[in-house]
Amino acid sequence: MARITASVYTSHVPAIGAALDQGKSQEPYWQPVFAGYDFSKQWMKEQRPDVIFLVYNDHATAFSLEMIPTFAIGTAAQFAPADEGYGARPVPTVIGHPALASHIAQSVIQQDFDLTIVNKMDVDHGLTVPLSLMCGQPPADDFRWPCPVIPFAVNVVQYPVPSGRRCFMLGQAIRKAVESFDEDLNVHIWGTGGMSHQLQGPRAGLINKEFDNAFLDQLIQNPEAAASIAHIDYVREAGSEGIELVMWLIARGAMADIAGGPAPRLAHRFYHVPASNTAVGHLILENQGTLP
Ligand code: DHB
Ligand code: FE
User: What is the reported pTM?
Assistant: First the structure.
């Protein structure tokens, strides 16, 4: 059967993609950001996931403001990197896993979470920047991401957005869905976006290191408490775009301890400010004793 062996949490920032694509990752401003992912890139090579279930948000790229699904699962065979206004990033096409994605859709909808099924979708920096941070730039002679990816898009752009509590419960349903897939697969679940940032209005540029680090502590040790943070508190403390953090709760809800298993092992923790307008946070949690 398929197993979730680890969860990964990371911010996304379009400027990180641009820094990588333009060869600026070793410039003094960017070097400390990318250094925080050196461990992670090595870890990815050692872990060799078969599939990444990647929770992210679309930024009015695939879904315009005309149509906004709350939760959307990508069931296609492949997903093209989107053109966000400067041309598509020079990164590989994302290969999907239609069989597992369809199974998860079936199982999670039967567990009373309504998902939108998306058979065609481009993926923006919300998905490709975390892949770049964790996997580096694939070499020219093997230009592909290390494994298939199931994109799972969450609306955190247009209110009403889902609560942290609902995201946490959805993660639990996703774990059950994965574990009922009848094929031995090593699955990673990623929660992306955040941490504190606000891109517009009088508070543009807001960063809250205290909130972010308390959130990281709580996500590791007391995820139920993190799941009870109200929208207004994200906005007040972490800025309007800090609401992206609810996506981390989907990945955390899918970990074994939430279903009565052992506490996860903290493999890596990183926090850095600034990166564009965003605080960059990153965690890797491993489930204990689940490697196939
Ligand atoms: C920035 C951060 C985001 O999450 C985003 O979607 C766009 C821009 C930024 O920090 O500039
Ligand atoms: Fe964003």
Answer: 0.98
